[in-house]
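SAMPLE LOG
Freezer: B-3
Tube label: C17
Construct: single chain, 123 aa
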Amino acid sequence: MFQDIHLEDSNHRLQFRKYMEDGDYASAASVLQIAALKQKTLTAEYINKITGLIEQIEELDDPDFMAKLIICSLEPPADIKSGDVWFQKFVLYIWSQVNALNYTWQTMNNKALGWDEINRGGW
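STRUCTURE (predicted):
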């Protein structure tokens, strides 16, 4: 478990930096071994672990990836199976299009359409 760096760790950081600048790498490494810093240091070991996991993910091969896209359509797909997911898309109208059709609320009521049908558009 990692911990946040606190104000009291500042002296250790400055000490580590000075050792590194002076080329005293053994002393710099000893600063990283201080118990208070054990859960706060990012070492090559952790970087290598992260890099290894990223490489494992990059090497995953899923030839059917594009075939598994979620289908978006006005109606349920004919070949949909139990457990498959699809999104119903709607044909949206803007007010100018509705006005151009000269439709009123009464016109829509006369069509006896449900909200699902209205939302799907194409009426």
